[in-house]
Amino acid sequence: MLKGNLEIFKNKNFLLYWFSAWFTSLGDSIFIIGLSWLLIEKTGSPLVVGTYLFIVGISKLIFILIGGIITDRFDAKYLMIYSNIIRAFLILMLVGISFTDHFYVWVVYGIGAIFGVVDSVAEPAAISCRTRIVKKEQYTQSMSLLMIASNVSAVIGPMIGAGLVAIGNTQIAILINALTFILSVLFLAKVSFGEFKKEDTKTSMLKDVQEGFHYFTHTPIILTMAIFAFFANAAVGAALLSIPFLAEEMNLGVKGFGLMNTAIGVGSAIGALIFSVWSIRKPKPYMTLLTCFFQGIVILMIGFTENLWLIIILFALLGMHEMAVNVIAPSVNHSIIPKKLFGRVISVMILVMSGSVPISQAIAGWAMEWSSPAAIFIGGGLIEMLAAAVIFCFPFVRTYEMTKSSKGIAT
User: Fold this and answer.
1) Max Cα–Cα distance, the chain, nearest Å
2) What is the pTM of this model?
3) Does residue 75 come out as left (phi exceeding 0), alpha (psi in the -120 to 50 range) or beta?
4) Quick one: pLDDT at residue 42?
């Protein structure tokens, strides 16, 4: 049920956190355009782009459990600040090597691996920080506001990035991301996340990991929805990787690539605007499943469409559905997981839910060496629709609100 509430806009700490997220999301949306096109210009291979994303993702997954433990043991505010500083430095390195006479792909892969390790700490830290500065009933609203920051940036960023690439300033497009990380640090430094209650560090990290896994495996709704997200994220991840190659196949170039990404941002921004004013008081898992099922239909239709403007509309719908999923699903998780276990449990969830993304992107990059981007969209859409339909068949998922007191939450 949606309910109007503007109280969150009076929360100074959340607004500072929001602006910090806005800067980084703007830089990221420019960066992905610049980096993707830089790798295409230097290598001309979709396999290289897919491999880079695979390395970033797999290194993040390898260290995500440690990142969750670190988030529970140390102040997440400073983990975010230090992570942004490191990432700004890595981007400066990437720009530097792009000007050298010999572009060594293995160096780019190495930087991507470090990015993944830093992300393994930054992501659970960012999630933990947000839950410390907003009320429980504002979880969906805060998520939608962050999605506005992300997706308005996704509207502006691709246009800026594509424009810079088109005039031969690919490195500047990448460099802007370093600047946005620094600006984000300045905003985060002014946010008060409240007193940090340090977790008992006498227990071993192995025991902390075991505790996180135990809670995850003994909370049926969390476990089931994480498994579903494994397949849904694989489908979406493969489709998103295929966007620049779809633009290239349609002879649209970088401008078409930017337009498709902008359409995703426009759709997401529209949806996020709705949820930022009206919050879902009781988000339920079946809402996520239905949204993902329809998102799968949209992805499937992209694979069968050759008309540019129809594809743009479909990408906008894709953005709207993705936004809805990213508002509803995390809000369910945040309402269930105890705060003292949040870092390690959410890291296990990220490991399971995101584990399929680098694999699917690497497979998609390999598959496009002999097939078409359209085939990737068709396959991805079918996978997401099938996964949503199967999980929806479980009664305890469909009737979560009725059974959560007895089955949904582990003790």
Assistant:
1) 64
2) 0.65
3) beta
4) 73
